[in-house]
Design brief:
This protein is α+β, with helices and mostly antiparallel strands. The chain folds into two domains: about 120 residues, Rossmann fold (3-Layer(aba) Sandwich), CATH 3.40.50; about 200 residues, no CATH class. It contains ten helices and 20 strands. Strands 14-13-10-6-5-18-19-20 form an eight-stranded antiparallel sheet, with helices on one face. β1, α2 and β2 form a beta-alpha-beta unit. The chain is globular and about 55 Å long. It binds fe (ii) ion (FE2). Fe (ii) ion binds next to loops.
Length: about 350
């Protein structure tokens, strides 16, 4: 049996590393665990060589500190083997670019901030091969998301409404707007391939979120079948009502025994025009992390649990992607009924 997928992926990984501004002579670490895709390790390794960089493929033991199974959830708790190993951390800090091919990444692990502070840039990759290729970013994606960040920074209120009944008011001052553009080109930058989104970390939001049929619950990778109403006050989900998915969310919040489970976390909107809303239906759960849903152009993405700017450490992280919302920032509509305003 031939295994040609790594060869097939070499061009896409090389284009990705060039977007990360990998230069000749820089040092790349390809980080993996035993459950990582071998074809991705090979493709990243080959791409780094193609760019003339030094490259080390480092495989560390699997095992996550999070109670959730490592099925490409996006929770980003890191690997115990790195969290407990200063030699591994030193290697990652000494790299110019880390290609993170671990199953869950490190986005919510404080150690990642330490690594980034050393100037290392990190690109996290774990979706399926054709998802990566279809959503390969463009350099101009960064300029577009930065315009969204500037808008959020200059504004006071984000207001989200939908025909289904959503009416949520979000206070923006202090909400630390940021972005994902699908490549990590600046020193100390983390990013995720694929992704194109604008987000912020508000503390206070009030009103009601109504999930409509077809919205996507992550990390479960399930579509909403019956509308769900979430009553929100002061950034906290007070009440969840509806059908089966409402029961599922209530059970998740209760089972987590996590004090921040019902607190809202990041919020924003997707700008990835190549994203496919049906990818969630068409792939096995272990094949996909779900960036097609999270970054889908014109979706309103909100989440629960961890909040680094309020020092809330939590493993109870849901990302919920909604179609059909209108998102207005200080009255300027950036998403209208689920479509980007400028497209
Ligand atoms: Fe998230």
């Amino acid at each position: 049996m031939f295994d040609l997928t790594s060869v097939d992926l070499l061009d896409a990984f090389t284009r990705q590393l060039r977007l990360c501004k990998l230069r000749e002579g820089e040092h790349v670490v390809v980080l993996s665990e035993p459950g990582s895709r071998g074809d991705y390790v090979a493709a990243a390794f080959g791409a780094a060589k193609t760019c003339g960089a030094h490259v080390i493929a480092a495989t560390v033991p699997g095992g996550s500190p999070a109670p959730m199974p490592s099925t490409h959830t996006g929770a980003g708790p890191g690997l115990i083997s790195v969290l407990n190993d200063t030699t591994a951390q030193t290697l990652l800090k000494s790299a110019d670019l880390v290609v993170d091919l671990t199953r869950e990444g490190f986005i919510h692990a404080p150690v990642q901030q330490e690594i980034l502070r050393a100037g290392t840039r990190i690109i996290f990759v774990c979706d399926a091969p054709d998802v990566l290729i279809r959503n390969l970013p463009k350099e101009s994606d960064k300029e577009e998301v930065l315009r969204g960040v500037e808008l959020l920074k200059a504004s006071s209120v984000m207001h989200v409404t939908s025909a289904a009944g959503t009416d949520l008011t979000i206070q923006l001052p202090g909400s630390k707007p940021e972005f994902q553009c699908g490549f990590a080109d600046d020193p100390g930058r983390w990013d995720h391939w694929p992704s194109t989104m604008v987000l912020c970390w508000p503390e206070i939001s009030d009103g009601r979120i109504v999930l409509a049929e077809g919205d996507i619950l992550l990390p479960f990778k399930e579509y909403v079948r019956t509308p769900v109403t979430l009553e929100v006050s002061g950034g906290h989900i007070d009440k969840v009502t509806g059908g089966a998915e409402a029961e599922m969310l209530n059970t998740f919040f209760d089972d987590s025994q996590d004090r921040w489970a019902r607190s809202l976390s990041h919020m924003g909107w997707g700008l990835m025009r190549t994203a496919d809303w049906f990818a969630t239906a068409m792939y096995g759960k272990d094949d996909l992390m779900g960036m097609d849903a999270r970054a889908f152009a014109g979706n309103f993405l909100w989440s629960t649990g961890p909040h680094p700017h309020l020092q809330r450490e939590s493993y109870a992280h849901l990302d919920i992607a909604m179609r059909g919302c209108t998102v207005a920032v200080d009255g300027a509509e950036v998403v209208i009924s689920g479509r980007l305003a400028e497209s």
